[in-house]
Specification:
Elements lengths: L12 E9 L8 H23 L4 H14 L19 E7 L5 E7 L5 H11 L4 E3 H10 L13 H14 L13 E6 L5 E7 L20 E3 L4 E7 L1 H6 L2 H12 L3 H12 L4 E7 L4 E2 L6 E8 L4 E6 L2
Parallel strand pairs: 3-4
Antiparallel strand pairs: 1-5, 1-11, 2-3, 2-6, 5-6, 7-8, 8-9, 9-10, 11-12
Helix pairs in contact: 1-2, 2-3, 7-8
The structure holds aspartic acid.
Aspartic acid (ASP) binds next to strand 8 and helix 6.
C-alpha cells in the first residue's frame, strides 16, 4: 500500500509546460535555449504573483497560458503549427477543480487567446465544448480579442510543415517531431485546483482533426479531491487512454500518490510519446515525460523554483 501524503507541501503552487518532444541539448542553440528559459521564467513569475496575492488557481492558469500563447516559442496561439492545408487551427480547455466545471474550444482560427475563450465557455455558456465558427462567434459576443488568421503565422512552423510534407512522401516522421503544446496547473491559497491546456495540435494534421488538448479528461482535468493535470504528446493516444482523468482516478480509487499515478500512466501504461504536469491538493507536483525533453517548470509559496528543458 502506498503512503499517501497528508502534509501540505506548499500554500500555493504553479506548474507549467511548453510541450514534450524531441528536445535535446545538442539540437538547441544557446540563444534559443535562453529564450525558452526566460519565457518560462516570466510565466512562472507572473502566475505566482497572482497566487501570492490571493488570486485564484483559474486566474493563474489562464494568465500563464496566455503568455505562452502570445509567444511564438510554443505551439499554441501565435506560433502554432500548421495543418495539412497550411492553416492554424487551435484547441484549448480549462477546468475548475472546485466545481468540476469545464470549458473548451476546438478548431478555432481567429481567437487570439483560445484559453480565454475556453474559460468563457465554462463561465458564460451552458456548454463545455464549442468548435469552429460557433466558438468564434461566441468569443466575439464575449468581447474577446479577434485577429486575422495570419496573426498566428510563424516562418519556422511553416518550414516544418514543408519539411514534414516532403518527408512524408517517402517515410513516416516520428510523431515526436510534430507536436508541442502549452499548459498550466495550479493550487491556490484556498485549496482550489485548476488546469488548462492550449495547442495548435500536430503539424500536418488533417480533416478537422482535434487532439486531446480540448478534451476534458484527456488533455486537461482538475478535481479538488485529487489533482490537476495538463497533458502534452500524441493526442490520439492521450484521448484513448483518458490520461488526465486516469491519473486522478488512480489517486481517488486506488489511493495512489500523485507521483506514482502520473509516472505509471506516462512511463508504463501509455504506449505513445508525451508527458504531463500535475499538482495535487496537498501541493505535491509531478512532471513525468517519456520523450527526450519537455519544456517545464514550477514555482511555489516556499520559494522553490525550477525551469528545465531536457531529460535528466
Ligand atoms: N497533444 C497535442 C495534440 O495532439 C499536441 C501536443 O501536446 O504536443 O494536439
Amino acid at each position: 500500500m502506498e503512503q499517501k501524503s497528508v502534509e501540505k507541501q506548499a500554500e500555493y503552487v504553479l506548474v507549467i509546460h511548453g510541450g514534450a518532444g524531441n528536445i535535446i541539448k545538442e539540437k538547441m542553440n544557446p540563444e534559443k535555449e535562453t529564450k525558452y528559459v526566460e519565457k518560462l521564467t516570466e510565466v512562472l513569475e507572473k502566475g505566482a504573483k497572482i497566487l501570492q496575492n490571493g488570486g485564484s488557481s483559474l486566474d493563474a492558469v489562464e494568465v500563464s497560458i496566455r503568455i505562452m500563447e502570445d509567444s511564438p516559442l510554443f505551439n499554441s496561439g501565435k506560433g502554432a503549427v500548421f495543418n495539412a492545408d497550411g492553416k492554424n487551427e487551435l484547441d484549448a480547455s480549462i477546468m475548475d477543480g472546485k466545481t468540476l466545471n469545464a470549458g473548451a474550444v476546438a478548431n478555432v482560427t481567429i481567437i487570439k487567446n483560445p484559453i480565454s475563450a475556453a474559460r468563457k465557455v465554462m463561465t458564460d455558456s451552458e456548454h463545455v465544448l464549442l468548435i469552429k465558427e460557433g466558438a468564434e462567434e461566441f468569443a466575439k459576443q464575449q468581447g474577446l480579442e479577434i485577429v486575422e488568421p495570419e496573426y498566428f503565422f510563424d516562418q519556422n512552423r511553416w518550414n516544418s510543415l514543408q519539411k514534414i510534407k516532403n518527408r512524408e512522401a517517402n517515410e513516416k516522421p516520428s510523431p515526436d517531431e510534430k507536436h508541442g503544446t502549452c499548459g498550466a496547473v495550479a493550487l491556490d491559497k484556498f485549496g482550489n485546483l485548476a488546469a488548462g491546456t492550449s495547442t495548435g495540435g500536430m503539424t500536418n494534421k488533417k480533416f478537422g482533426r482535434v487532439g486531446d488538448s480540448p478534451i476534458i479528461g484527456a488533455g486537461t482535468y482538475a478535481n479538488n479531491k485529487t489533482c490537476a493535470v495538463s497533458s502534452t504528446g500524441h493526442g490520439e493516444f492521450f484521448i484513448r487512454n483518458v490520461v488526465a482523468y486516469d491519473i486522478s482516478a488512480l489517486m481517488e480509487y486506488k489511493n495512489m500518490t500523485l507521483s506514482n499515478a502520473a509516472n505509471y500512466v506516462i512511463k508504463e501504461k501509455l504506449n505513445a510519446n508525451g508527458g504531463i504536469i500535475a499538482v495535487d491538493k496537498d501541493g505535491n507536483i509531478a512532471m513525468p515525460f517519456n520523450t527526450s525533453g519537455m519544456f517545464r517548470g514550477f514555482i511555489n509559496s516556499k520559494g522553490e523554483f525550477e525551469v528545465k528543458l531536457y531529460g535528466n
